[in-house]
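Complex 485.
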Amino acid sequence: MIKLPINYHEPLPAAFYPASAPLPFSRADFGADFHWGAAAAAYQTEGAWQHQGKGPSIWDDFTRRKGTIRRNEHGRVAADFYNRYETDLDLARGLGLTDFRFSAAWSRVLPEGLGAVNRRGLDYYDRLVDACLERDLRPWLTLYHWDLPSALQARGGWTNRSIVGWFSDYAQIMARRLGDRVQHWAVLNEPMVFVGAGHLLGVHAPGRRHLGAFLAAAHHATLAQAEGGRALRALLPDSAQIGTTFSCSHLTPHRPGNRNDEAATRRADALLNRFFVEPTLGLGYPVAELPALRWLLERYLKPGDDQRMKFSFDFWGVQNYTREVVKFSPWLPLQWATLVPAKQRGVPHTDMGWEVFPESIYHMLKQFAAYPNAPRLLVTESGSAFPDVVQDGRVPDPARRAYLQAAIGQVLRAQQEGIDVGGYFAWSLTDNFEWAEGYGPRFGLIHVDYETQERIVKDSGRWYQQFLGGTAVASEPERAAAERV
Ligand code: IFM
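Predicted structure with 5-hydroxymethyl-3,4-dihydroxypiperidine bound:
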């Protein structure tokens, strides 16, 4: 059994894994079939926002509204992945990854969200899938990573129950075209985030702040999650591994033992970690902890929905970045709880203000695996944003490297305790557009210079490559220098 440093409160996790010290584990400890990947998403990386027939999405619209995004940035060019995917996949291959997770932009395939297919958009994903396979990278396709076609938002978007059918039609188009080559499908990316941040907090597209909109969107996303799974399974009954992904955070009370904070922590857990998970298992919504969800049941739940929300996924994607510390709040209806920011607690944190707490991933894997009938788990996102400096064509990023090592170690810890966890995907392959935060926070294993689109594999990426036994990775400046010799 490996011993990992946990419960630390040192300034930076790098202190635990100095670059020179050997790790207490190796790739082989995870088993030969373990999926080693990195992840990305369409709006955050592709750019090409109006290219080859793509229709607008709610993120194209939201980023046009002044003041919604830091420095008024947008994803119109982003990391230019649409044009540079071959370069990026070469780098991914060089890192030694076995798998690459990306999302499709619904409005690239269906500019109006439904109806006529944009052949050139679908062709692009066809080429991308082939490009992965040519490099021995298994493609993991996420159908929805937050960029709803604007035309569907004009009809109410996620608050309109018809979205369940629209989404199912889109899923079928993707399955028919790519199902012969894509074996791993994720239906939704983090429904709590696009529903909550987009419809209750108003900080993500479509920028709504309305409890009714939140409850409607939540219920329709829950239905679409299961319906999308059914659509894929009906068309790909033998070949596809069908999953969906959940954001989650290990939660602890601000004042352990304080009854109010303990109860607030249970409510926050119901909202942040259980809400979209339990209906898939037939357990319904966590109404006992969150009585406000009765409105959802009264207004939006139709006869038969309890069954419609169920789907037996082949895997759940666990997406974890931090833990949260929870305090009772009399001001926030729905959960009557607030999250105490890491900065206020004086603990080490990333550029997102998230506490550096890699053991959260271990706790969440244990929590999800404890459900009877839980499917196989994979960590489909895990990572950290720290400021980067390019020095002599390299990016030394010890804090990100240490976070990555610690997170992977925590996954092994869970696996060694019997949890069926089958993969780890670092977020993210390259730096990209971090939603409301714009291009400030950098999560990539590969640095992107947004002026020139030059890529440099960071030291964290080089560490990942050594750990995975990938072939040497040359960054663009190094390749250019080699060509000059
Ligand atoms: O960048 C996001 C991603 O789109 C969804 N999961 C969390 C990441 C970091 O915030």
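Residues 41, 44, 190, 319, 381, 427, 434 surround 5-hydroxymethyl-3,4-dihydroxypiperidine (CB under 6 Å).
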